[in-house]
Amino acid sequence: xxxxxxxxxxxxxxxxxxxxxxxxxxxxxxxxxxxxxxxxxxxxxxxxxxxxxxxxxxxxxxxxxxxxxxxxxxxxxxxxxxxxxxxxx
Length: 89
Known about the structure:
Blueprint: E1 13-22, H1 27-39, E2 47-51, E3 57-66, H2 69-81, E4 85-88
Antiparallel strand pairs: 1-3, 1-4, 2-3
Helix pairs in contact: 1-2
InterPro entries: UPF0250_YbeD-like, YbeD-like_sf
Pfam family, one: DUF493
Family: Belongs to the UPF0250 family.
């Protein structure tokens, strides 16, 4: 893991996380629940969604207020561990 000193990011900072999964069901709420565990409350204006052309996939972008590189790494690990997440950017 890289430290904050090794990171090109300056913390705290706003950081967009894009998560892609199957559309339908509660995928959006699933992603937000994972994000809230790591970064705390997320305002509605920090969340955007886009459904794929055929409606099979949902892309969720969450702009989080990252306090450290360790926090971002933890968030990506938690999202990656979810079987419902197909892609993470």
